[in-house]
């Protein structure tokens, strides 16, 4: 058993070397061989999941993360990679749950020091994606014609992407060219949808306007809109009550891990005014966010 563990560790280090060189397929192969030697090591699955993220093999990433979490429940990296893969396959609800778990584990960790800001950004991205899905459905319900037109655009996009995949499979174009064309199709589709929604919003502003929350109004601990923001010495703002509760458990900034005391906090009056104005102007829907 010890021999297998040693061999697995050597293969992992070899995989890490490939990963640092952006040789992700080779890294994945090494991690897979390492797992064959030691299938009980959760870190090998997260390493392979990270390589598979780079290769955009989303379902394989999900499988690896789930296996890693089975072996190690409090597994921040596995939840972090899992959320990214779930976002990639358009499952924002699941992605948000995974990202929140990663964030919670990161904030509580005594060993991780540089991941909180990155994971916080992912949580917000997942929450916005979840809201976007709800908004899309709300707007579609408000305007049947808009929904039908968006579906037509979606069908057209899928057809164009299918043609690109078909040409790639037939070696009529290379991987780089295919990726560029896919991005072009996505950008064109997104622009058309945006223009379409704008036209409908102008015609029915009360019901069709897209509802958004600016990032700067959102607390980086609870990911809700702030009511009484305070600012730290490094310029980061948080909701006063949630930050004080955090500081009672750990006297450090949740994102930077710098030493932080309650007496270091100052009211952010300008941000408080902006939050109040936004809440008052959008009181009809904002608590659903």
Short structural description:
The chain is mainly α and 289 residues long. Helix content is 69%, strand content 3%.
Task: Decide which structural class fits the backbone.
Answer: mainly alpha
Q: Kindly estimate the percentage of residues that lie in beta strands according to DSSP.
A: under 5%
**Tally of contiguous helical segments:** 12
Q: What is the CATH class name of the largest domain?
A: Mainly Alpha
Order of helices and strands: HHHHHHHHHHEEHEH
Shape: flat
CATH superfamily of the largest domain: Tetratricopeptide repeat domain
Largest sheet: 3 strands, antiparallel
Q: Number of DSSP strands? A: 3
CATH topology of the largest domain: Serine Threonine Protein Phosphatase 5, Tetratricopeptide repeat
The total tally of domains equals 3
Mean of the pLDDT scores?
Answer: 88
Low-confidence stretches: none
Describe, in plain words, how this protein is organized in 3D:
The chain has 289 residues and is an all-alpha fold. 69% of the residues lie in helices and 3% in strands. The protein has helices spanning 2-20, 24-37, 42-54, 58-71, 76-88, 92-108, 116-142, 144-169, 175-203, 205-208, 240-249, 269-281; strands at 229-231, 237-239, 266-267. A three-stranded antiparallel β-sheet has the order 2-1-3. A hairpin with a 5-residue loop joins strand 1 and strand 2. Helix 3 runs parallel beside helix 5 (76-88) and helix 5 (76-88) runs antiparallel to helix 6 (92-108). The longest helix has 29 residues, at 175-203. The radius of gyration is 23 Å and the shape is flat. The model has no long low-confidence stretch (mean pLDDT 88).
């Amino acid at each position: 058993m010890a021999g297998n563990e040693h061999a697995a560790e050597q293969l992992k280090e070899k995989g890490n070397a490939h990963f640092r060189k952006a040789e992700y397929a080779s890294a994945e192969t090494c991690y897979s061989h390492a797992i064959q030697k030691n299938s009980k090591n959760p870190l090998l699955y997260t390493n392979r999941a990270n390589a598979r993220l780079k290769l955009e093999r989303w379902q394989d990433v999900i499988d690896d993360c789930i296996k890693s979490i089975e072996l190690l429940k409090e597994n921040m990296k596995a939840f972090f990679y899992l959320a990214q893969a779930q976002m990639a396959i358009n499952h924002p609800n699941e992605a948000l749950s995974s990202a929140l778990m990663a964030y919670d584990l990161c904030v509580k960790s005594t060993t991780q020091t540089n991941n909180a800001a990155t994971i916080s950004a992912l949580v917000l991205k997942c929450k916005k994606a979840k809201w976007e899905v709800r908004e899309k459905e709300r707007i579609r319900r408000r305007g049947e014609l808009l929904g039908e037109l968006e579906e037509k655009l979606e069908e057209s996009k899928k057809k164009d992407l299918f043609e690109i995949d078909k040409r790639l499979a037939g070696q009529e174009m290379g991987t780089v060219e295919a990726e560029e064309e896919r991005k072009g199709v996505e950008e064109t589709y997104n622009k058309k949808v945006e223009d379409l929604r704008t036209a409908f919003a102008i015609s029915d502003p009360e019901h069709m306007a897209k509802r958004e929350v600016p990032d700067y109004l959102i607390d980086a601990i609870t990911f809700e809109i702030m009511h009484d923001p305070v600012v730290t010495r490094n310029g980061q703002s948080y909701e006063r009550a949630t930050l004080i509760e955090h500081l009672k458990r750990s006297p450090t900034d949740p994102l930077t891990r710098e030493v932080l005391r309650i007496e270091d906090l100052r009211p952010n009056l300008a941000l408080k005014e902006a939050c109040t104005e936004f809440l008052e102007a959008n009181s009809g829907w904002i608590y659903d966010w």
